[in-house]
Amino acid sequence: MTKPLVISGYALCWNERACIHDDQGRFYEQFLPGSFVDSIKKRNQTVRYLHLSSLDFASAETGQLTLFEDERGLSFRIELENNHENRMFYNLVKDKEVCHVSVGFCNAEYEEEIKGRQRMRYIKRTDLVEISLVKNPAYKTSYVQIGCNNRRLELISKIDKALSR
User: Fold this and answer.
1) What is the pLDDT of residues 26-69, one digit of tens each?
2) pLDDT, tens only, 125-147
3) Helix, strand or coil, per DSSP, at residue 115
4) Partners of 97 in beta bridges
């Protein structure tokens, strides 16, 4: 049996602001601690490449994706079967072709603040749909790396896998 491929990182860090553009112009968005805590309990998130649903390659439901909110932000661990397709994604991370992560979410509960011409949105709760490996994230401190050096996340991953059997 071949050893699984593991990648991990932070999908976003708390209190970081991202500049978002919508039909009303530009605004800033910031996730608050606890934003995803209810959502990640559902274990229905997927991992994608560049937000393309046709390129889902892991899920929380099957125990491949472990998500955890800690004092820094939303951390994740992905364990992939060692096969040709998954090695392609793994090597994109290993070769630093893809270094960041983005989140897809819906049903956000937020507070909006307007100061002068600047809009700021503070997200308090939301449903996390997916995390995506990307090159240009909205949240610049997000990252993905090969392996996992987060002991708490490793333990949660083992529990998740046991529950998904």
Assistant:
1) 899 999 999 999 999 888 888 888 777 666 667 776 668 889 99
2) 999 999 999 999 999 999 999 99
3) strand
4) none
The Cα 136–Cα 128 span in angstroms is: 19
Q: CA end-to-end span of the chain, whole Å? A: 18
Tell which wins on pLDDT, 161 or 68. 68
| Tokens at 29, concatenated | 């968005």
How far, in Å, CA of 7 to CA of 154, rounded?
A: 11
Cβ distance 163 to 63 under 8 Å? yes
Residue 68 to residue 66: CA distance in whole angstroms: 7
**Biggest distance spanned by C-alpha atoms of the chain:** 60
Distance CA 84, CA 128 (A): 28
Mean pLDDT of the chain: 87
- Bridge partners, residue 77, by sequence: 8, 66
Query: What is the DSSP code string of 78-99?
Result: EEE--SHHHHHHHHHHHTTS--
H/E run at residue 160: helix 151-164
Q: What is the C-alpha to C-alpha distance for residues 74 and 165, in angstroms, rounded to an integer?
A: 25
